[in-house]
Amino acid sequence: MNSIISYSILFFAGIAAGFINTLAGGGSALVLPILILMGVPSMQANATNRVAILFQNITGASQFSKHNKLQVKPFIHIVFAVIIGAIIGSFFAVKMRSAIFDKILGVVLIGIVLMMFKPHKTKNRFTKRIPKFLEFIIFLIVGFYGGFIQVGIGFIFLLTLSLVEELDLVRANALKVFMVMSYTFVAVAIFAFSKMIVWKYGIILAFGNTIGAYIGVKAAIQKGDKFIRIVMVIAVTLACLKLFGVFELFKNMKPQINTNLYEKREKILLQSY
Fold it and tell me: How buried is 165 (Cβ within 10 angstroms: 0-12 exposed, 13-18 middle, 19+ buried)?
């Protein structure tokens, strides 16, 4: 693919991802498949995407704070839990074998696609405020996932915050953005030290994500575009096929077919003699 075209696709995908991530989540499910289809291994794609995520959430957090929608002090204990969990998750991502990570990421991407078509239910406060130590454990696990994979972390944060904390959607989004920003500083440092980031792609994505985040904060609660969902589903499907080795299977079948035809032709020639 032409470099200018691929960079342009990545930039506009970054805008869409920044917009989607800031409003809810799932934008990485659009970016990661594009990086993978551009030839970036899944683990490096996961690391490279974090550069864009960092700049996106710095922009989002500053804009939410500017509009007085960001409250951190009452939730500082879960912010620390998320950061600790993300540090552990990032180290797991660095150490994991690429083949295993491909399968895990493929399953997660399929799950994200299914979540997109699940009807949203109204929030139900089924329990009283839980103890802070239990909140800490819950968000430690959420942070681990964020540091490990990142894809769909926005959905997970919003779901967890709606169940554990009493926040409206705008304030939950603001807190989510701040927490992701906080642990992504550390995640980027770990991935950069491990030389897993493709910086040219990460910087292009960062510009796009920053613009998308700015637009997303302005739009706040607006619904996502159906067209973006369709594009995302197609991209995720292609990426899953690549991650699960379906494309490689077809590549390996072609030489085998040619070999079989060659062997048949040889047999016919031998019989004629």
Answer: middle
